[in-house]
Design goal:
Elements lengths: L2 H16 L8 E3 L1 H14 L3 E8 L5 E8 L7 E5 L2 E5 L4 H4 L2 E7 L4 E6 L5 E2 L6 E2 L2
Parallel strand pairs: 1-6, 2-5
Antiparallel strand pairs: 2-3, 4-5, 6-7, 8-9
Length: 131
Amino acid sequence: MPTTTLAVLAEAAKKIARSPVAKKAAVDLTAAAANRIRELLQARHKEYIKLGVKKRGCSGLSYTLNYSDTKGKFDELVEEHGVRLLIDPAALMHVLGTKMDYIDEPLKSEFVFINPNAKGSCGCGESFTTG
């Protein structure tokens, strides 16, 4: 291979290495979810909402949402629609790829999680299992 070809390939490899790689967010926030998170954060003067899971309910796991002022060393940060959501590292494998939405209906208002990892859920929808 001629030297010029090697030089061109080396330069292209350097450019690729320096380019930021677009990374898919661990959790996808809808605009409705982001708007509600923004309202909650502004009302409490907090930096983040932190998504986690706890062992409870008929199916084994349920989602938790808590306020947080700081990002933990291993927390996953999701920034979408101008809001910042943290994901607890212990929850990450259970929520990876989840779409988080917010519904506001006359009889109920709640965050809804569309989780591709969920293998089952209880009848009331409050808990889920991933395996």
